[in-house]
Design brief:
Radius of gyration: 23 Å
Number of strands: 17
Mean pLDDT: 86
Distance between the termini: 39 Å
Strand content: 25-35%
Low-confidence stretches: none
Number of helices: 3
Structural class: alpha+beta
């Protein structure tokens, strides 16, 4: 379960403010011993907590990528920055929008609260906007009856698996996606994944249809539905570090804008 940093920052700020108010009336800092020291330390933290809370709530917030659902765009253990200002200013904890600034656009990489468990943050790409009709047939995405433009840039296989890499165009975004699956044991031909990846969906007003770039390994709107506007956190825009698990050093070789397309020609 994700830690709700915004909640704990807000709570910590509230506690320090209450201690400051108590100090103003009761002169707690003048007392000797632990009480005076604790109050003085608490008062010195108010400005720090306020600055951190404002930056994190209204400007930019760091996140870490926990899974491979956005491969090849985002790798597991990428550290990214999310613009909290792109889609409007929201209050911490409640996530209530107070100042509308903009709306998600097709192709944006968006962070949001998972509709089935809002304690978790998810990251996916915006595919369908309010009012759109989104369909997936044979792993090709259709929006309002038109196939999304894509071009094959690489393909490969091993003894039992195959993978194709495409450049896909969604709105103004040009990004890489993966399509992969198993080979037929009878003739060695690729099997196109079926099941929950096929279907057609209407996107209601105030909601967004999202998908992972790793199309056959992503838990997204094809399985649990759309993202309501009230659950949006912000737009992911920058990779600033990559750090694999313990005993490795952080790497900055992947730093840059998230939708920078790099192919292995």
């Amino acid at each position: 379960m994700d830690i709700d940093v915004g909640f704990w920052l807000t709570l910590a700020l509230l506690v320090t403010v209450l201690i400051w108010l108590a100090d103003r009336f009761l002169k707690l800092r003048q007392r000797k011993g632990m009480i005076g020291t604790t109050v003085e330390t608490s008062n010195s933290l108010i400005s720090v907590l306020l600055i951190v809370l404002v930056i994190r709530s209204f400007i930019v917030e760091p996140f870490t990528i926990p899974s491979g659902s956005m491969l090849p765009t985002l790798q597991v253990h990428d550290f990214i920055l999310v613009n909290k200002f792109s889609y409007g200013l929201r209050l911490p904890v409640t996530n209530t929008k107070i100042i509308p600034v903009g709306e998600p656009e097709r192709g944006d990489v968006m962070v949001f609260k998972f509709p089935e468990d809002t304690s978790q943050n998810f990251i996916k790409r915006v595919v369908g906007l309010p009012g759109d009709r989104v369909a997936v047939r044979d792993n090709v995405v259709y929006i309002n009856g038109e196939p999304v433009d894509r071009a094959l840039v690489e393909q490969g296989r091993n003894a039992r698996m195959w993978r194709r890499e495409y450049i896909e165009h969604l709105g103004e975004a040009e990004h890489l996606i993966w399509q992969e699956g198993v080979l037929s044991p009878f003739n060695g031909e690729p099997r196109i994944p079926q099941g929950g990846t096929q279907g057609e969906w209407e996107v209601p007003e105030g909601s967004y249809f999202v998908m992972g770039d790793n199309r056959d390994n992503s838990n997204d709107s094809r399985f649990w539905g759309v993202v309501p506007e009230r659950l949006i956190v912000g737009e992911a825009f920058l990779i600033w570090m990559h750090w694999d698990p313990i005993f490795s050093l952080p790497s900055f070789s992947r730093n840059g804008a998230i939708d920078k397309v790099e192919t292995s020609d």
